[in-house]
Amino acid sequence: MARLLARRTAALAAAAAAAVSLASLSTTAATASSGSAAVGVGADATTAAAAARPLHFVAADVNLGSPEKLQKGRQGEDALFVTKYAVGLADGVGGWAEVGIDAGEYSRALMGHAKNYALDAALDADLEAGVDIDPRAALGFAADNTRVQGSSTAVIATIGGSGKLRLINLGDSAAMVWRYERPLTLAPPMPLTPAEAAKLWSLQLRTKEQTFGFNAPIQIQYRSDGNDAYMADAYTFLPQVGDLRT
Prior knowledge:
Blueprint: H1 2-7, H2 9-16, E1 36-43, E2 55-62, H3 67-71, E3 78-82, E4 86-92, H4 103-123, H5 135-145, E5 151-158, E6 165-170, E7 176-180, H6 194-199, E8 201-206, E9 211-213, E10 216-217, E11 220-221, E12 233-237, E13 244-245
Antiparallel strand pairs: 1-2, 1-13, 3-4, 4-5, 5-6, 5-11, 6-12, 7-8, 7-13, 9-10
Helix pairs in contact: 4-5
């Protein structure tokens, strides 16, 4: 998954340049790659003047299985979810197919439970403190409640009342934060070529891959009882409105 995202970074930056505005409090972007999400960062308009603004995601996602797997009636091993305050991606370990198990069922169940945790946490949030979802707790809850065989890597990111992006990564998938840095001018902006647009995006954060060895990612798996969630690397980042997380 990390290699797939890396190959499409330049195309993503060029496509998103027209979709993300740093001057806007509501931003959006989308990308079409297998099992990936492009997530813009927006600010709650009612608190725009606050020093530490509550933030939320403005997101789009798409999950395209390979033609070969679709022909066999399989959906692929990737799964993802998007909510206002949390997003997540799981890349099921395809090696389970050798013993007749579809790891995609595990990854979809895993992300489904993580999404339910995030939605419940947002509903239960303190009105003054705002939404604050622990991504590691979301992954642990999801692992505890996923009762199908398989295993998966996982990335979960949350944002909310603190204005900080909280992110965990387990395995060899990757999460990145990009920032659009086109200088503001009084004159109307000139159209840019894809190559010129790509140069205006800077990489602010990229998670590190976790592996035991070649093609052997650390993974969360069936009957792990949530313990593997504590093996995930944790990151905290202070984003700006308009930042793009992939």
